[in-house]
Specification:
It is a single chain. This protein is an alpha+beta fold and about 80 residues long. Helices cover about 40% and strands about 15% of the residues. The chain is flat and about 35 Å long. Helix 2 links the parallel strand 1 and strand 2. The chain contains three helices and two strands; from the N terminus they run αβαβα.
């Protein structure tokens, strides 16, 4: 069954920086939903891995760079 409305738990994270890693061809997290997430969260950074389904392995170069930049930003 569907997990229910996930917007309230997502919106509860508004005060926290978020990094969204999404596979371009994900059948679980569409580009439209990711865009809505970015609109609703003031400090969300998205990295989309081209040609990748759900979920990226996190060892893609663009993901490693995004993680490094994200951690450096929240560490400062």
């Amino acid at each position: 069954p569907p997990p229910g409305d996930l917007w309230p738990p997502f919106l509860s994270l508004k005060q926290k920086p978020l990094l969204l890693v999404r596979g371009e061809t994900s059948d679980l997290l569409s580009a439209e939903t990711a865009a809505r997430m970015a609109e609703r969260h003031p400090d969300l950074t998205e990295v989309c891995v081209r040609g990748t389904p759900h979920a990226p392995t996190l060892d893609e170069p663009e993901v490693e760079l995004a993680i490094d930049e994200f951690l450096a930003r929240i560490d400062s």
